[in-house]
Amino acid sequence: MKEKISFRDSRFYPVFFMIILSAILTFILAFSYQLSKDRVQMYQVLSLQTNLLDLFKGEISELNNKLINDYTPDEINKLYNKYITKRTLQNPLGFHYYEFIQNGNRSGYVFLVSAKGLWSTIKLLVAIDPDFSNYLGIKIINQGETPGLGARITEDWFQEQFTGKRFHQGDKFIKLQMIEEGEDPEADQVSQITGATVSSKAVITAIQDELETLYKQNFGSGKVN
User: Do the domain assignments include residue 1?
Assistant: First the structure.
């Protein structure tokens, strides 16, 4: 008489065990994702609000020369709701941009633009005055360029040099020219990162070409948004 084999000792048990184990691990991962999803979204919103406010920090009296990062999330959210208004463009449909409003007056616009760097898509916020004449500042918010080279585009000196540069004058769009790092830039020149020409150029392409397209499609020739 053939001896009866228990299920645990059968050849099907390892397969069954792996299926159950995989199901349990999948449930744990899904549960962990749901727990962290809201936290990640809250961080992304807070980061965006902080960067938007930082572009206009000189016009926010509540800051009193303090850094925006010194404020609590609730305080940052209150300042954002007071000064920043989110708008939507018609072309491209659904494209969001932001306005900084103070005492009922628009102080500037902010657009999220991007360009292909050497290893990644570089995303940044660019602030422009209400007349689209001069840049008010830029904030690089996402990049994956080479550490020590292209990633240096996040350094303060590189970003701050765009503040006050001309974007548009009369019927002419101003094209910024790159010069070597360490040289003294003239009115329409910016210093590139040494050894990172592609990354430096990507930033200029994003704030010039994309912004020029958005302006022509939505704000130029008397168009009002």
Answer: no
- Residues in CB range of 130: below 8 A, 6 or more apart: 106, 107, 108, 109
* Mean pLDDT in residue range 186-205: 93
What does the alpha-carbon distance between residue 86 and residue 141 come to, in Å, rounded to a whole number?
18
Which residue type occupies 131?
D
Residue 3 pLDDT: 60
Write down the residue that tokens 């007349």 correspond to.
131
Residues 127-144: tens digit of each pLDDT: 999 999 999 999 999 999
DSSP state of 4: P
Instruction: Tell me the per-residue pLDDT of 157-168, one tens digit each, with 9 for 90 and over.
Output: 999 999 999 999
**Residue 213 falls inside a structural domain:** yes
Separation CA 143–CA 82 (nearest Å): 29
CA dist., res. 114 & res. 118, Å (int): 13
> Does residue 211 lie in a domain region?
yes
The neighbour count for residue 178, using CB atoms within 10 Å, is 16
Residue 112 · residue 125 · CB < 8 Å: yes
* pLDDT the model gives residue 9: 62
C-alpha dist (Å) from residue 203 to 26, 129, 218: 41, 19, 22
* Contact assessment for residue 134 and residue 140, using Cβ atoms and an 8 Å cutoff: no
Structural domain contains residue 63: yes
- State residue 12's pLDDT score: 66
Cα–Cα distance, 223 to 122 (Å, whole number): 29
Q: How many domains does the chain have?
A: 1
Residue-number span of the structural domain to which 89 is assigned: 53-218
Sign of CA dihedral 180, 144, 114, 69: negative
